[in-house]
Amino acid sequence: MTSVLDINNLEFSWPNSTRPLLKVEEFQVSQGEHLFLQGPSGSGKSTLLNIIAGVLTPQKGDIHLFGNDFQAYTAAQKDKVRGDHMGFIFQMFNLLPFLSIIENVTLPCQFSKVKKDNVFDKGLSLEKEACRLLKELDLDIQLIGDKKVSDLSVGQQQRVAAARALIGSPKLIIADEPTSALDADVRDRFLQLLFKECKTSETSLVFVSHDLSLGRQFDKVLSLKDINKASPMQTQSAEVPT
Amino acid sequence: MKLLNISLKSLLNRKGTTFLTILSIALSVALLLGIERIRTGAKQSFESTVSGVDLIAGARSGPINLMLYSVFRIGNATNNVSYQTFKDISNRDDVSWSIPISLGDSHKGYKVVGTSLDYFKHFKFAGNKNLKFMTGNEFKGLYDVVLGADVASQLKYQIGDKIVLSHGSDKISFQDHADKPFTVVGVLSKTGTPVDQSLHVSLEAIEAIHIGWQQTPGDTHSGDMHNHDTANESTLTPKSITAFFLKLNSRLDVFNVKNDIDNYNQEAVMAVLPGVVLRDLWNTIGSAEKTLLAVSLLVFLVSLVSMIISLLATLNERRREMAIFRSLGAQKGFIFSVLIIETGLLTLLGILLGLLILYIALFSFKPVLESQMGLNVNLLTPSMNDFVYLSVIFASSLCVGILPSYKAYKNSLADGLTIKS
């Protein structure tokens, strides 16, 4: 299996801090793999996601994304890779309230020609593909109409967000606590739909949550505490002179 | 869905704050341009206190002095001009018409102007407006008087009222021409010029009321000798006048004629070009104009600041929006552009709304401005200045838009893809 993401000897600290916040020796995601990353808040979770997204730059380490040396890219190139090959789902509030459902779902294609072409290669228009994805995710646009997303329930909004992450067949989807606002039964259904869609397009999924009970349904489960060697306690003890 | 479209929809989503921002820009645009209109209006009204007159002639003194007493009725003439000189110059071939002005009497502080019927026919103000009668008509009889608009309204005179003129220009005069009362026969419409503050009688009337005044007090002939009948029978040809207005057949001759008058060898007279002197006068008394300009600039500064404030205020609620754009692959410059485009749109809409407000206000207040303040506000033609102001407004708002845009850009870098709320 080819690896989509390959991180080695990563070290990150904030500019004004001498203490590393994140220290990851090895972290890998293979193509098509569904990985569950468990981490409570404060464990450096969002920092790691921002590094993978190319928004933050680590001081040390080696990141290979889709087989390329991500660290060698300029900020603009990183933005392009993110737009072309990644999709994101966040906890909440990640839709633009002033756009309609379809406009929100097709928004990534406005920023990326690659995603747009991926849709066109299927022989579909952007709107058709958005409707198809939403229908797969149990949100029939023909039934509810193309309303403003602010009129939707939280569960429905999260499905719109998932469809937006999935459109244009990205190679990697990063989901940050996407189910924490959902009820248990809605959550399971949402996960299954997400898995199914990722399988169809061979998309890798990195799913981050504090709730370990969700991990059962994933190919691989990792704990951020285990892979991050720079947890606050350890760092402090390391600073004590021996 | 392009950048502009996203900006528009985002703005529409924040209708309330957006509208308030636009309104604040619009009001300051309207205020700035409105004050500007009034400023230029005041200047133009002043500079066109007399128009259609090529030269003003009077006894030799300073040009501003001549202007002040002949047009603004301020101060006194140092000397008179003989009627013969007036006749001589008026009869020149290159003179189209002339208006004599004879000053020196007053009524309750308002100046009395002795003149001819040509005054009502030819005198123009504010570009090319002729004097109009609100009621009545020009003087025909010897003791007829035509009132300026302010005189009639302040003293509540009507057609047919009898009034008494006084010698000199003081408000309280003990030298009334009480034996020769005048009848109001006409009231002029408001002009916004010193004409409003004047009473107009014929040159002959001025002569008539002064018959016998050369005699020393205590002279046995004074008093009963000077009744209406005697005056009418006397030879009323004026001996001297104070100044006169000239219109030439061709403006090209102005300097020629001026030169001839200045070098007139029978009498020490001079001629001035009213436009030039009025401009000089405005420059000396025009500090009010500068004050207005300062006020409008301050208004504009305040509105720029309020625009920055309202843009900065919306930034916090928009951090999520920016993070979403970033997660979709938007480059850092995109965030900056969205905000700058938004500022541009707000300003553009503000300017358009401001112009609308300005024109509605101008149209509704034009009659009041004209009749009450005598301001001739130019309505429809936007001046070159307006364009300059509007482009400066647009450019400077884009400049101040850089601050919130840069802040948003910084935020989006710090926030990354997730908002810590």
Question: Explain this structure to me?
Answer:
The complex is a heterodimer of chains A (242) and B (421). Chain A has 242 residues and is an alpha/beta fold. In chain A, 40% of the residues lie in helices and 21% in strands. Chain A has 10 helices and 9 strands. A 5-stranded parallel beta sheet of chain A has the order 6-7-8-3-9, sandwiched between helices. In chain B, strands 1, 3, 4, 7, 8, 9, 10, 11, 12, 14 and 15 form an 11-stranded mixed beta sheet that branches. Chain B has a two-stranded antiparallel ribbon with strand order 2-13. Chain B has 14 helices and 15 strands. Chain B has 421 residues and is an alpha+beta fold. Helices cover 52% and strands 16% of the residues of chain B. Chain B has 2 domains: 2-46 and 286-417, no CATH class; 55-272, no CATH class. At the A-B interface, α1, α2 and α3 of A face α1 and α12 of B.
Strand content of chain B: 15-25%
Based on secondary structure, the structural category of chain A is: alpha/beta
Number of strands of chain A: 9
SS-based structural class of chain B?
Answer: alpha+beta
> Average pLDDT across residues of chain B?
81
Portion of residues within helices of chain B:
40-55%
Q: Kindly state the percentage of residues in helix of chain A.
A: 40-55%
Distance between the termini of chain B: 29 Å
Q: Supply Rg of chain A.
A: 18 Å
Order of helices and strands of chain B: HHEHEHEEHEEEEHEEEEHHEEHEHHHHH
Low-confidence stretches of chain A: 233-242
